[in-house]
Amino acid sequence: MSEAKQIDNVVIIGGGTAGWMSAAGLASMLGGTGLSITLIESEAIGVVGVGEATLPHIKFFNDSIGINEAEFMAATSATFKLGIEFVDWGRLGDSYIHPFGEYGLSNAGIGFHHYWLKQKDHPETGPLDLYSLPIMACRMAKFQPPSADPRSVMSTYRYAYQFDALKYAPFLRKHAEARGVTRHEGKVVEVNLDPECGDIQSVLLESGEVIGGDLFIDCTGFFGLLIEKALETGYERWTDWLPCDRAVAVPCESAGPLLPYTRATADKAGWRWRIPLQHRTGNGHVYASDFTTDAAAEQALMENLEGAPLADPRVLRFVTGKRRKLWNRNCVAIGLSGGFLEPLESTSIYLIQEGITKLLEHFPHTTDFSDDAEEYNRLIDLEFERVRDFLILHYHATTRADSEFWTHMRTMDIPASLAEKIELFKTRGRIVKYDRGLFLSPSWLAVYLGQGVVPDMYDNRVDLLADDDIAGHMQGLKSLMHKSAAAMSDHGEYIVANGMAGAA
Amino acid sequence: MEAGKAIRRVVIIGQGLRGWLPAAYLAARFPDGRCQINFVETGGARTDDVLLARPSIRRFHQLLQMPERALVETAKAQLSHGVRARAAGGAILLPFGQYGYDHAGAEFQQYWCRAFKMGKAGGLGRYNLAAGLAEAGAFLTQTPKGQPALDFGYQLSAAGYCALLQAYARGHGAVSFDAADGFEVRTDEGGFVKTIHLAGADLECDMVIDARTEADVLAAGETPDLGWQGNRLYMPSHCDADLPGLELYSLVEALDRLIALWPDKDFLACEREEYNRLTYAERDRVSDMKTLLEHGVIGVTQSDALARKISVFSNRGRIAAEDHEVFTKPEWLAALIGCGIVPAHYDRLVDRMSLEDLLRWLASIEDGIGRTVEQAKLAARVV
Ligand SMILES: Cc1cc2nc3c(=O)[nH]c(=O)nc-3n(C[C@H](O)[C@H](O)[C@H](O)COP(=O)(O)OP(=O)(O)OC[C@H]3O[C@@H](n4cnc5c(N)ncnc54)[C@H](O)[C@@H]3O)c2cc1C
Question: Which class is domain B3-96+151-338?
Answer without folding.
Answer: alpha beta
